[in-house]
Records
---
Amino acid sequence: MIKEHINRQVIITALILIVISIPMIWFRDLGAHHEISYLAIASDAMHDGRFFTFFREGQHPFTEIPPLYMWLSMLDYALEGARGNLLLAVNAVSAACCIVILDTTFSSLLQKNMRGRAAFCMLSMPFLFFSIYIVSPIVPGMMFALISMSFLTYRVHIFSENSDIECKRGNIAVPLFTFLAFYTSGAAPVLIELILVMFMLLVKKKASIYFRIFTIRYILILLGVYLLNLVLVWYEGRWLFVSANLNTVAEQIFGGVFEGHTIFYYLFSFWYLSLPLGFCAIYAFIRTLIKERAEMHTKVQFAILLPLTAIFVSYISSYRSEYILIYAVVTLPFLFVYYIQKQGARDRIIKWLLLLGIVPFIFLFAVSFFVRSEYVILQNVFVVSALLFVALFSALAIFKVINASPIDGLSVFASSILIMSFLLGFAMMDINPYISPMKAIKTTLALSNKEKVDKICVSGVNDSWAMKVFNPEVDFMQVSPALINSEHCDSSYRIVGRKTLRNHPEFMELLKYKGTLQIGDSLLLPPGNLKKLPLKNKK
């Protein structure tokens, strides 16, 4: 039965995604904001023998990231130190699994030759790649949630046809993967699932069978496992951590009620985050809703209602919108291909919207030449090659849209995104200093160790306390810009990060003194009062 649902083209597409991601995973350095701190928190927990309670800066309870993802961070740190490669690899594999899960979910809606095209069109969304290359629980959490939603969608279809039938499918999978989603990325996926099922049943006018779909048994299992988790949290951290965990869940769900963005923000996000699919998919979304509202298949409802539910949840909860938006884009390629399959290539609006999304990419290569003097990274051979391939493939995609079909054009554009991601992976060694302080940190540590200096002053770098993950014996002190060149830091090396340089450009004048270095968007300053040091050009 399983073999009937497996599509070779979809599996190949998923494997291509993983292979394309390898250079980025291997060469990318971690950013200072959140990414390094996850590993620092994990290393502290390993040192103290804790698995359910975590501390930020060694003293503040940290409950924003659930334990399962922190366990992955602990495993990553144990295997390779402060690298983060394993966490990025988990993201890539999770995204590939999402492609397979969505294909299996929609397999009955699409013709065999369309299934592979739909999966490949999913690679046309830059936001999918952005989420892979950021150390975050969003993608693995989405994978677990999509598995659970797939089973719930099947149950909605079965019970809406005959509410008296018995259906055991999902009795284990739904609570298991729902809890894994919660234990990986928090309350958002659970909230999306609960509201999604209600929306689907309201459309079908079957709200009365809600607890046949998401049964009381499921809810009791979820509450029971969560209670067990709280017991383990209490064992390690007593009531301080139990209350912190409960407050975090409450804050995630209720903390930002009705403080979300307007609909125009989401319209822009669909265009920006899933170029060039965004507006095109929204149009297919609306047309499908109008044409099939009377006899809409349950899985089409799922494809339409998941984005709406994700937007609704991000609006009523305190989750940052970009954390939820990935749920709002994952079904768009399948809805787009489904609409093309039903309508053929007759709809000219689809073509025009697709062209609107592709055209800007043709000019990226040309525009880069006008600003390359301001952005040194644009002179990197891999970056230049990536932009050139995107421009050429975008032109070819436009030709395909006009002369062949929208799906052919989107597939060609997806190829350009794949090539761009692959080439940018090899450019990361030059890009890293501009997005990550890791090179500046390691260079400073090497100089400090050579001169046996055990203190480093840091200004303008997020989560500077987490830098201890690179060397626990060195004291990283966060200081204000005013103290960088004062007696307070005269005896230590200093790192001046992007934030301080942006607000205090006068710091760039320090480069004229001997011993100062610029590493990407950071300055490395030697010990001593710099204004008393000789100038670099002085003979």
---
Amino acid sequence: MSLQESEVRKVAGLANLILSDEEVASFGEDLNAIVTYIEQLQEVDVSGVLPVVGVSGIETCSRTDEPQPALPREQILAMAPQANEQAFLVPKAVNR
């Protein structure tokens, strides 16, 4: 499978990237190499192989989740550069 230029531009748009024509060609080659590799992986016979959830053999040791005292909302919001009555105010980062 080979990605078309329109598909490369769509992927770039999903990642909020604006690419020049040269970059579209370069990224297209990179994405096509990735797709080719994935296609090769799909051809590997894994019948009889058990699924692996973790490879280290080490279990995650976590403390129990217990509620801890917290600062009052008003005090936390007072420390923010900008806030309204219930949330931090941040500049818009994505144009969607």
